[in-house]
Write a structure and sequence with these properties.
Blueprint: E1 4-8, E2 28-36, E3 39-46, H1 52-61, H2 75-86, H3 108-113, E4 158-167, E5 169-170, H4 182-187, E6 188-189, E7 197-210
């Protein structure tokens, strides 16, 4: 079984076992087989990170002429592998990150049949664009409670409270009352007035006591 393999990197997650740099997606890479237990896997490298010593060993074992995956490569990438076999790519770091000609390889049909999913709107935003602020629910204005005129009869000397009454209440100011509001005189008696019953209980503001 071939111990060397070439292929297009399926993702950008793998790293070169020599320089430790990431291999970009669809970059042509070369792998050396390793077996751990019964599991076979590969240690991947950039083509330029395949050393002279590895090349010499591969020539001695014949693996260099029996590289797995070679037949499925695009013509341009086959030429690159041929350069590797000659030792022309050793230390040629400018080919790092080169994306292979995968659309002219044996993998082209599967890529056309399964195109990558399009990014959503969130991924299409221009760099630096800020998200629109999220609107919260508008709070309803709470109306201020009406005093129904209760505090209109309050003074610095007397406070007003609300009580249920069935007759006029004597005004503490008596004949000297300075009020002119008809509503006040309908609710309070002033010396000569007669405190008569209204016939029903009403809730009224009452000048109660001194502060």
């Amino acid at each position: 079984m071939p111990t060397l393999m070439v292929e297009y990197a399926k993702s950008a997650r793998s790293a070169c076992s020599a320089c430790k740099e990431k291999l970009v997606k669809h970059e042509l890479r070369i792998g050396t087989m390793i077996v751990i237990g019964d599991v076979e896997s590969y240690k991947w490298r950039h083509l330029c990170c395949f050393t002279d010593r590895q090349l010499t060993n591969a020539k001695q074992t014949g693996d260099i002429d029996n590289i797995n995956g070679y037949d499925g490569l695009a013509p341009k990438d086959k030429e690159l592998v041929e350069e590797l076999k000659k030792g022309a790519l050793v230390g040629k770091m400018d080919i790092k990150g080169r994306v292979g000609d995968i659309m002219n390889s044996s993998e082209a049909e599967s890529l056309k049949a399964n195109p990558p999913a399009k990014r959503g709107r969130a991924g299409d935003k221009e760099e630096g664009a800020k998200a629109a602020p999220r609107r919260g629910r508008a709070k309803k204005a709470v109306p201020e409670p009406e005093d129904d005129g209760v505090q209109s009869d309050a003074t610095e000397d007397y406070e007003v409270v609300v009580e249920a009454c069935d007759a006029k209440i004597p005004c503490p100011y008596g004949e000297s009352c300075f009020r002119t509001d008809p509503t006040h005189f309908a609710q309070y008696s002033h010396s000569g007035d007669v405190a008569t019953s209204t016939g029903k209980t009403e809730v009224r503001p009452v000048i109660k006591r001194k502060r």
